[in-house]
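Structure first, sequence second, as always.
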């Protein structure tokens, strides 16, 4: 009851926010345990079910190869993927609809989580990264369903927040069967918060797994006219203005694509581009006409970022100059692309350290250094090739976490 009360207070604030910001999406009623008849029919056959939870875009992309391996290991299994965010749900539907049943994740009220467990009735529940839901874990535990955290991590911010409720966490974490953590630091942190040490294993980061080029979409980028392409990916408020200020200096030397982390911001970014005296076009409109030189392309659709990284000459990965926390730099690295990041990479500290140790990333600390880095990359093809190759080598050297994870959970599969 205590956790129901806490989540009720949270929902009072969060649900109106969803409505006001347009983040409510199709099938959202499932989050309250209101399931369409078609879904009930699809899951009532009593087949062996693996339930995988992935919050949003990054986690979804990480579980794509995991699902492929699970299906290869146990072809008769039904995989159910629950997703939280609007963008994540859209991406999961497009990427996984042929291999998994995709539904919104439950709100963490006890009566909702119990209805989910009854509907899905999984033989195992797998959460990508460290998603701790007290009522859901309790509902699963009561039905003797193993709970596994994969690719687990505890960021600096999360550690501080969890410590505030550490007195509650030990009982929740004790219900988890296995913690597969990204690194030793994260393993120590989850034990410090109350996880049983004998259930915590360091396996590495599954985001380093080979990201098949077949995941790319066929993109018509003929508008580049053989110009260099700068892709600014997963950008956040404040960063686009810095990027545009730098781009004005180099607009005759390269083309620019801005892919904001949240595509619902695309309209405001188009206005920002135009206010800077530059031309802008939405990515969804590129194929309908010729894009003139010096036009900034603003991505307003979901699921194209990796394909754009594959086409880029060099990449900036956002949430690292403003806001802070960082985003996944492995995605452009797998395509051997030179990568620029800002100083605020706390959520990807371990990964950033691996790249920096091999001089496989350019880290800048302000807009002046960003301008310098972009200038160097535009004017030095050898530097672009060397940085890209080093980035790819870091990825290859750190692969294997997915197979290690599967070896640990195969007894439940």
């Amino acid at each position: 009851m205590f956790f129901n009360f806490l989540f009720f207070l949270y929902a009072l604030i969060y649900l109106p926010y969803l409505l006001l910001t347009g983040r409510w999406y199709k099938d959202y009623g499932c989050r309250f345990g209101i399931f369409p008849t078609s879904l009930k029919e699809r899951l009532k056959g009593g087949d062996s079910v693996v339930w995988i939870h992935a919050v949003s875009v990054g986690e979804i992309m990480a579980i794509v190869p995991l699902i492929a391996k699970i299906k290869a290991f146990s072809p008769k299994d039904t995989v159910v993927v629950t997703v939280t965010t609007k963008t994540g749900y859209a991406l999961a539907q497009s990427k996984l609809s042929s291999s998994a049943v995709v539904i919104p994740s439950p709100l963490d009220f006890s009566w909702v989580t119990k209805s989910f467990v009854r509907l899905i009735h999984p033989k195992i529940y797998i959460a990508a990264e460290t998603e701790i839901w007290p009522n859901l874990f309790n509902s699963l535990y009561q039905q003797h369903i193993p709970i596994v955290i994969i690719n687990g991590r505890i960021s600096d911010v999360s550690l501080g927040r969890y410590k505030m409720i550490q007195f509650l966490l030990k009982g929740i974490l004790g219900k988890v069967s296995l913690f597969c953590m990204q690194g030793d630091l994260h393993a120590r942190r989850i034990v410090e918060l109350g996880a049983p040490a004998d259930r915590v294993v360091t396996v590495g980061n599954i985001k380093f797994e080979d990201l098949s080029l077949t995941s790319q979409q066929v993109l018509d980028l003929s508008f580049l006219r053989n110009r260099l392409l700068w892709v600014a990916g997963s950008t956040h408020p404040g960063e686009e203005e810095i990027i545009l200020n730098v781009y004005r200096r180099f607009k005759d030397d390269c083309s620019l694509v801005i892919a904001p982390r949240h595509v619902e911001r695309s309209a405001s970014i188009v206005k920002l581009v135009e206010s800077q005296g530059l031309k802008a076009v939405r990515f969804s409109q590129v194929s309908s006409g010729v894009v003139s030189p010096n036009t900034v392309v603003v991505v307003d659709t979901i699921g194209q970022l990796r394909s754009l990284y594959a086409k880029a000459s060099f990449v900036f990965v956002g949430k690292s100059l403003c806001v802070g926390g960082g985003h996944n730099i492995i995605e452009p690295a797998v395509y051997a692309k030179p990568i620029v990041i800002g100083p605020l990479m706390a959520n990807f500290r371990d990964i950033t350290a691996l790249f920096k140790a091999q001089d496989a990333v350019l880290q800048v600390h302000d807009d002046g250094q960003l301008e310098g880095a972009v200038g160097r990359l535009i004017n030095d093809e050898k530097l672009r090739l060397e940085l890209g190759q080093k980035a790819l080598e870091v990825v290859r050297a750190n692969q294997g976490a997915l197979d290690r994870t599967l070896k640990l959970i195969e007894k439940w599969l």
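Margin note: The CA atoms of residues 39 and 153 lie 32 Å apart.
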